[in-house]
Every structure is written in C-alpha cells, then in structure tokens.
Specification:
The chain is mostly beta strands. It has helices spanning about 140-145, 175-185; strands at about 10, 20-25, 25-30, 95-105, 130, 150-155, 155-160, 160-165, 190-195, 200-210, 220. The protein is globular, with a radius of gyration of 38 Å. The relative contact order is 0.16.
C-alpha cells in the first residue's frame, strides 16, 4: 500500500493529485478495492468482511463508518446461495394392512396405568397384549421399537398400540402360558385387550404393521 500505516492503502492526496495511484475525493488509493460511490454489480460483489453486516467506510477501521470529511462509503453486499433439498419419494414409508382370524381375549383392566411387558409403554384400556413370537420377535423388548405403531381390530374391539405381553396363569398346567394359548388356538393371532369384551375364537382380525414388521400369525397382507 501507499501508506504502510494504513492497511487499506490510503493517504491524503498531494497537490495536483496522486502521482501513481487513483485519487478519489481527497484520498489516494492503491488497495485491493476499486473505490466507487455505487455498489458493484451483484455478480461481482465479494462477501462482506465486516462483522454484523455493516457498511464499510473506505479508509475506516473494520466494521465502522469513516468520520466527518471522509470519502463516500462503499457498500459491500453478501451474496447467499441456498441450495433447495431434493425431494426423495423413496423415503416415504407406509404401513402394511394384514387381515385374517384370531382369538380376542378380555384383558385385565386393573393393569391400566402400570408398566407393561413392552419397555417404555404403559398399559391402557384399548391397547393390546400380544405374544411377541407371533409377530416374529423373541421378546417384548425386541418388539418395543415397533409396538407403538401396531394397531387394528379383533372382532369388534379396536386397539391403538401394543403395550404388554401375555402372561399369568397358564390354561394348561405345566405349559408356559403363551405356548399353551397357541396350542389351544393354533394358527390364530391371539390378542388381549383391557376393557374389551371377549371376542371368541376365529374372530376377524385387521392389523396394521409398520415397515420392518411382517404380518403376524393367522394373517396375511391385504390384497396379497
């Protein structure tokens, strides 16, 4: 720069103008910017080096206007380009509707408000207790990520989600309760709903399952 003490390369114009550099107003300039009282075309505008989006007064400190008597200020504008994300229809996931027959059991309403056999879920009227193995999972914990998104009806009783697994006293002595129920009602989806009445055996079943879950025992995909 002409003036080593001024990082912008400005010094007062000598009598008769500047000998080797531009003279704008009453200052000489040899810095990196071409001074003008008008902003440059938008396509050539550099990013604003001054914090806070302020106008830069020529010959001033960074981010401040030049005091009285200074030359016209140059407006440095920022050009921001925002990329629009592409839509991806492949990310759309839909549930599968499964239809078939099952055994609808009357659930225990006294369990309402208590922690069920599905981690993180509380038993409520109108929710279901199931046998996880009938949905292809070894336990309630393995079924847990999908349980809130499984819903449907057995007979005329609807259920909004799965909150529990079946347990209690076995109807066949010496046989675990879930195994015993499947022996008694082979090939049927067994669903227990607190607050619902007994729906009997071979009741019509409609179950909606999320991606990652196959149609449970006794059902198949609607239209499949």
């Amino acid at each position: 720069p002409v003036n080593g003490a001024d990082p912008w390369g400005l010094e007062p114009c000598a009598a008769g103008g500047c000998p080797t550099v531009n003279c704008v107003g009453d200052l000489c300039h040899s810095g990196p910017f071409i001074l003008t009282s008008k902003p440059p075309p938008a396509i050539f505008q550099p990013l604003n080096p001054f914090s806070g989006g302020q106008q830069a007064g020529v010959g001033s400190d960074r981010g401040q206007e030049l005091g009285n008597g200074g030359p016209p200020s140059t407006t440095v504008q920022e050009v921001v380009v925002t990329a629009k994300p592409k839509s991806n229809n492949n990310n759309k996931k839909t549930s599968t509707t499964c239809v078939g027959h099952g055994r609808g059991l009357q659930g225990n309403s006294a369990l309402a408000g208590k922690q069920g056999g599905i981690p993180g879920q509380t038993v409520e009227p109108g929710t279901a207790a199931v046998i996880p193995q009938q949905f292809g999972f070894p336990s309630g914990g393995a079924l847990a990520p999908y349980a809130p998104y499984i819903n449907g009806t057995v007979g005329t009783a609807p259920f909004s989600s799965i909150t529990d697994v079946m347990g209690g006293k076995s109807p066949i002595p010496g046989v675990p309760v879930r195994q015993a129920l499947q022996q008694m009602f082979p090939g049927q989806l067994i669903i227990e709903i607190p607050g619902a009445s007994d729906q009997g055996s071979n009741a019509p079943v409609v179950v909606n399952v999320p991606p990652g879950v196959s149609c449970p025992t006794g059902t198949s995909a609607s239209g499949g």
